[in-house]
Specification:
Length: about 110
């Protein structure tokens, strides 16, 4: 088995260009600049059309919609059952605003 020095020399022989020693640029010492006052122009944020957020708690109303009924089978094929995947559920928050939860349609197998 080759020694560690042999391994180092073999690895260095594979390198085509010599490494160039680089040094880091000097960092400006802390506190060398005098304190200054920042300056900027404040702009009113763009209106999104809503006050924002959902006021807790949210309460589900009786309005649910479903995708078409599907038949699902267990992986071994012994069991099968029918389901109607939920498409959309309607809630109302404590401010009375309507909140919709819309779910993607499951893939059919």
């Amino acid at each position: 088995m080759a020694g560690i020095n042999q391994l180092k020399s073999d690895l260095n022989a594979l390198q085509t260009t010599d490494r160039q020693a680089r040094s880091l640029s000097p960092q400006e010492p802390k506190g060398s600049r005098p304190a200054t006052t920042g300056r900027g122009n404040w702009e009113e944020p763009a209106s999104t059309g809503s006050v924002g957020g959902i006021a807790s708690p949210i309460v589900e109303t009786a309005a649910r919609t479903y995708y078409a009924e599907q038949t699902l089978q267990s992986s071994d094929g012994l069991w099968s059952f029918r389901v109607k995947p939920i498409q959309q559920v309607t809630f109302h928050d404590s401010n009375g605003a309507e909140v919709l939860m819309i779910y993607a349609e499951p893939e059919r197998e």
